[in-house]
Design brief:
nine-stranded antiparallel sheet; signal; alpha+beta; 9 strands
């Protein structure tokens, strides 16, 4: 799965990157799928259907709740969200509604043969795959729910700070650093170490993403 292979080579050096870049440093990736049709300024035939489709999109918070409920139904103790990583399949965009494809990493809170799972899903509400792994993910802190800021709001803060994008990859992550903040990271590099982060809590600090970090390194096996 691209999420694992991409991010495994991008949080060992995360604390150094965060200190150098104001608390930033992470990566993001997701499996690409079909892009959404662009909506023009005119109102062509079928525009009402497209508008309905956009309205029917889940928020990231709603999709996260659905994914966690489905994972818990199969693996009752796999409940700790570590990462939500999104991609705009059509390429870099300033419209975060086009970041439709998401992958989630969820850790097991108990001992067992499953340490963590990766879940592929989209904002239409389709959960298309769950992949299990023997080890838990480490190198980042668990994400405390509920998600109170969506990618569109986060992008607006980054754009207002002078970095309007466009961006293809978006990640929600809490770096393992001193004084950690839950952040959105915006990048055009898969497993990216380039772009900008924004804190979801006050103050909404915007910082460059530090380079050379490895996000999602598995925890060492427990004896």
């Amino acid at each position: 799965m691209r999420l694992r292979t991409s991010l495994a080579c991008t949080v060992a050096a995360l604390s150094f990157a965060a200190m150098a870049g104001g608390g930033a440093g992470a990566a993001q990736a997701a499996a690409p799928r079909t892009a959404l049709a662009p909506v023009g300024s005119a109102v062509p035939a079928g525009a009402g259907l497209r508008a309905s489709a956009v309205r029917a999109q889940l928020t990231l918070a709603q999709l996260t709740d659905k994914v966690l409920a489905q994972v818990k139904a199969q693996y009752p103790t796999v409940t700790t969200l570590m990462l939500a990583s999104g991609e705009a399949p059509g390429g870099p965009t300033t419209d975060m509604a086009q970041v439709t494809q998401w992958e989630f990493v969820v850790n097991n809170t108990a001992q067992g043969p499953v340490g963590s799972v990766d879940v592929e899903a989209d904002l239409g509400g389709t959960v298309s795959g769950i992949t299990t792994h023997a080890q838990r993910w480490g190198g980042v802190l668990p994400i405390t729910l509920p998600i109170t800021m969506d990618p569109t709001e986060a992008y607006g803060i980054v754009a207002t700070a002078g970095h309007p994008g466009p961006y293809q990859f978006v990640a929600l992550v809490k770096p393992l650093v001193a004084g950690p903040h839950l952040q959105y990271h915006f990048s055009n590099v898969r497993g990216g170490n380039q772009g900008y982060s924004v804190n979801t809590d006050e103050p909404h600090t915007v910082s460059p993403i530090g380079g050379g970090a490895t996000l999602g390194a598995p925890e060492p096996p427990e004896c």
